[in-house]
Description:
CATH 2.40.50.140, 25 helices, alpha+beta
Amino acid sequence: xxxxxxxxxxxxxxxxxxxxxxxxxxxxxxxxxxxxxxxxxxxxxxxxxxxxxxxxxxxxxxxxxxxxxxxxxxxxxxxxxxxxxxxxxxxxxxxxxxxxxxxxxxxxxxxxxxxxxxxxxxxxxxxxxxxxxxxxxxxxxxxxxxxxxxxxxxxxxxxxxxxxxxxxxxxxxxxxxxxxxxxxxxxxxxxxxxxxxxxxxxxxxxxxxxxxxxxxxxxxxxxxxxxxxxxxxxxxxxxxxxxxxxxxxxxxxxxxxxxxxxxxxxxxxxxxxxxxxxxxxxxxxxxxxxxxxxxxxxxxxxxxxxxxxxxxxxxxxxxxxxxxxxxxxxxxxxxxxxxxxxxxxxxxxxxxxxxxxxxxxxxxxxxxxxxxxxxxxxxxxxxxxxxxxxxxxxxxxxxxxxxxxxxxxxxxxxxxxxxxxxxxxxxxxxxxxxxxxxxxxxxxxxxxxxxxxxxxxxxxxxxxxxxxxxxxxxxxxxxxxxxxxxxxxxxxxxxxxxxxxxxxxxxxxxxxxxxxxxxxxxxxxxxxxxxxxxxxxxxxxxxxxxxxxxxxxxxxxxxxxxxxxxxxxxxxxxxxxxxxxxxxxxxxxxxxxxxxxxxxxxxxxxxxxxxxxxxxxxxxxxxxxxxxxxxxxxxxxxxxxxxxxxxxxxxxxxxxxxxxxxxxxxxxxxxxxxxxxxxxxxxxx
Length: 685
Ligand SMILES: NC(=O)c1ccc[n+]([C@@H]2O[C@H](COP(=O)([O-])OP(=O)(O)OC[C@H]3O[C@@H](n4cnc5c(N)ncnc54)[C@H](O)[C@@H]3O)[C@@H](O)[C@H]2O)c1
Ligand SMILES: [Zn+2]
């Protein structure tokens, strides 16, 4: 997003303003939304992000300045609010709540230790309504409208039992009580059932049902709808007789208004979050819908000082429950080709806020999954994202019996080779092997990756660029890059130092670890562990090919030599055989072996001084990566562990070692530095 040009940003802001205004109208004025709240929230977040990056592009008609929707077209009478009705800023996680609390302290210049009391109550999902009492009598009820001008619903609220027509003695002469008109879940279900029976309009949710029921021209329709009300604040008041939000709410409660049963005051973010979580746990059992918790600064003098931003008070925050499921549109299905040639379908979504983050892509896994869900571009789908789990499509809402299913490609979209699923396999793979550019660049990326050869300085961009220039056809070409030093240097973004670093990193791997190299070739079924198991037993990298070829040709001894290795099964033998059967691969292999000279792979279990011991690495290692150090330990027959305990035999501590070093010292565990470790490795051969 940061590399968006100004023109692109302005354009997108324009489109967002249009789209958001349209959905505001559908939702607020027509009670008939077209997209889910989570899709709407994703649009609003995107707008806010862009406005933060390009403050000078904020539009006159920016959605961030507007509350609700203007009611020009409403058949109801208009009421100008004496005190504006606002929206609320929202947060979706603890960090955002902490940020808000910190902002308040900064704004009020309070020091760290001074507590700020904050009220918390559940955020009920209905529509706001302002009730104006003069001399204790209800004179006007109004919806929020656009915040300045709302709709007159005075006759409509006459039938809502929670709204008193008269207040007790002693209330301010002019007093506007504000709160939410809502419908319980049970009443909503019953209403929709009755509507269905009568062939009437169905409501999307209790919130829309409450709004649609209240905003009726004919108040006798409202009278038949089971509406409820509870108060959360006030508007114009000829006098504010208390000094805190909480005391005011208790006074409003004494006037006969229901208020949130969860209303509390706390003075730390921890206590607020605990309360939020408690409300979240009770949420499924409540008979009304809530979508979060509202925090408000309790002291009214602080509220007055804090005031308002564009459309919401600075002193209040809605901490929403991030929806773990949300509805959105599947706009397209793209096919990606992976390193092993696997074709993975990726769903492109209309952005949607799920689990507090905006989701735009979702994996559809494979051809079978698409078939199971019956999805096609254009369908409405339900996305789930719980915790850190990657987002999933869990349901398709557009299932029509009569239509052709999505046609999964039978050609690789990258190279046009045939794409097939092996017998009994769900994955469809490109058969283009080493001619498929997608597979080739990703194989190269894998080859240099941390767990394989671990060559620093090769990002995917560099690989793609060198590949496009024809410099990196296969892994062996990496070792020939030294002949292109001047050409690399001539590319934009490269300096003497960066080129030399890259070339040095390559040279450093002329005698690579054979198991890592084998893993780096990306042969099917040959993962990290399998590669090591193979090399531990075969020892010489070059011998792998001849054994695999003999096994494939039917030599049972050769096959047995491999399958007798613990952890190696027939599928590995078959995959190795297939790999070396492909002339392309053999050429790549020979070429590569011509460039490198991996030492014989030995696991010294007897002679190594650390065999059978548990080693922990901590602090910064300067000549090797943590992964490499662990691999060395394993080769020497030691176990590398991540934490220090009484079972630890040896601690290797680099600069910056902290708690692990301290603990090892307390436990009297032998501790050496990186040089000491390098000596052990060198002596063990
Ligand atoms: N699906 C759509 O097309 C669509 C379109 C527009 C809006 N929306 C939904 O409406 C939301 C925006 O509406 P909004 O601007 O009214 O914001 P909001 O509903 O997130 O928050 C403000 C409102 O919360 C209510 N509220 C409930 N409990 C409260 C309490 N304790 N204290 C204060 N206020 C309390 C009030 O009515 C107040 O006006 C969006 O986040 C989205 O979920 C959806
Ligand atoms: Zn291909």
